[in-house]
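Service request form, structural biology core

Requester: graduate student, group of Dr. S.
Request type: structure prediction, single chain
Budget code: on file
Notes: please return the result as structure tokens.

Sequence provided:
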Amino acid sequence: MPATLPAAILFDAGGTLILQDPVELGVRLGLHIDPEKAHRAHYQAMAEYSDLRLAGEEADWDWWLERYFTLLDVADPHLAGERMKRGFALWNHPLDGVVDAIGRLTGQGVRVAVVSNSDGSVRDSLGRAGLLDLFEFVIDSHEVGVSKPNPGIFKAALERMSLAPEEAWYVGDSVFHDVRGARAAGMAAAILIDPYSLGPSDVIRVASVAEL
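Core staff response, request fulfilled:
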């Protein structure tokens, strides 16, 4: 990781700042969802998804959901995935250490904002997680009409901050969407949230936002 903090850090939301609430998810499905197992399942499914996409294979949100529920040993992962296909509203569980980490960064003069692929609900999700007010602004792909890894969504955030790409880092949990997109946008660093060391060795990896 670069030794000097940048002028700004842009963050992904799901898997970086927040996760699906395992309690609410279990209520919706009528199942017990183990929080630790759900935590690992998120990152494992995301790593496998990225590997497929980078290899040119077909995979989408439905694929990720079914793989996630398979890793949770849900009896019918396809049915669970279908029921949760519009489950963005469940992304309201803040990850440990995020509030303190963002506070330390902003205390050192680093500007922070969120750039997320979502369905228009990410701002509400961050609000329910108690994180929304920590950030200068939120860009939701549904609202701007362009999604990661398209470099345009990163550049839109940088233009809003009046910063050049080399003045900012991006932090996210997907090699395909986040690392690839941030690199294509020319950002100074693309950092992967990788608590289980599942990502490739040529990527800057941290276990959590707290490590920044």
